[in-house]
Automatic annotation (TrEMBL):
This is Ribosomal RNA small subunit methyltransferase G. The gene is rsmG. Residues 104-133 form a coiled coil. Pfam families: GidB. Specifically methylates the N7 position of a guanine in 16S rRNA. Belongs to the methyltransferase superfamily. RNA methyltransferase RsmG family. Keywords: Coiled coil, Cytoplasm, Methyltransferase, rRNA processing, S-adenosyl-L-methionine, Transferase. Its EC number is 2.1.1.-. The lineage of its organism: Bacteria, Bacillati, Actinomycetota, Actinomycetes, Streptosporangiales. PANTHER family: S-ADENOSYL-L-METHIONINE-DEPENDENT METHYLTRANSFERASES SUPERFAMILY PROTEIN. One of its GO terms (molecular function) is rRNA (guanine-N7-)-methyltransferase activity. It comes from the Bacteria.
Length: 223
């Protein structure tokens, strides 16, 4: 059997020319990420299957040259993976904990990623600073709370792409009142990476209709 930490065959297809950078990130996660407690020790042997590949296929849902905010990046999932696979995107990794933003900044330097900014903040505190095309999040909050953090960060017509697990449909139902409050007309489940990752990645896609808590004319301020 091969080394469980080395990239599986599908990683070549999914990451393409960016595979060496993804491999470097996998090593950094398996070493510093575990030592500093950003990911559990058991995750080191299943980084590709459980984390890197299913985050990378989120790329299918992100339009060309988008500005993206990843809420609660933690160790860089999915935001940093998206930055590796999609150099055309401008990505802000939003994370309140210093230990995690330090790790993220080190990873950005190590991987020489020019399209990533790391910001230490809570999503609900920085709505006035952004008017993003896309907000991403994985394992941060139930959808009904995530919507209240994400929609104010988006431009009208922008999209929240929330990676969700088996409860995705139930979370979507539970979020109905808050989606209605925000005037959302498009909120749907999508499966990404079909035929490329097993199981496919489930996301909830929510399109922002209006942005009730944003000051007018507030394009992203410089960081
Ligand atoms: C369970 S971790 C998930 C990390 C990563 N997204 C992943 O999938 O591995 C949740 C992360 O959300 C961050 N977080 C919690 N509340 C937040 C908030 N209000 N705004 C932004 N990030 C938040 C936490 O600090 C933590 O890093």
């Amino acid at each position: 059997m091969g080394d469980p930490r080395s990239a599986p065959a599908e990683a070549r297809q999914i990451f393409g020319d960016a595979l060496p950078v993804a491999e470097r990130f996998a090593e950094f996660l398996a070493d510093a990420g575990v030592v500093r407690g950003l990911i559990g020790p058991r995750e080191a042997d299943r980084l590709w299957e459980r984390h890197l590949l299913n985050c990378a296929v989120l790329s299918e849902a992100v339009p060309e040259s988008s500005t993206v905010i990843d809420i609660g990046s933690g160790a860089g999932l999915p935001g940093l993976v998206l930055a590796i696979v999609r150099p055309d995107l401008s990505i802000t990794l939003l994370e309140p904990l210093l230990r995690r933003t330090t790790f993220l900044s080190e990873a950005v330097d190590l991987l020489k990623l020019a399209n990533v900014e790391v910001r230490r903040a809570r999503a609900e505190e920085v709505a006035r600073d952004y008017e993003a095309d896309v907000v991403t999040a994985r394992a941060v909050a139930p959808l009904e709370r995530l919507v209240t953090w994400a929609l104010p960060l988006l431009r009208p017509g922008g999209e929240l792409l929330a990676l969700k697990g088996e409860r995705a449909a139930q979370e979507l139902d539970e979020a109905a009142p808050v989606l209605q409050r925000f005037g959302v007309r498009t909120a749907e489940l999508r499966r990404l990476g079909q035929g490329r990752v097993e199981p496919p990645t489930t996301i909830v896609r929510v399109v922002a209709e209006r942005t009730p808590r944003r000051a007018k004319g507030s394009r992203k301020r410089s960081s």
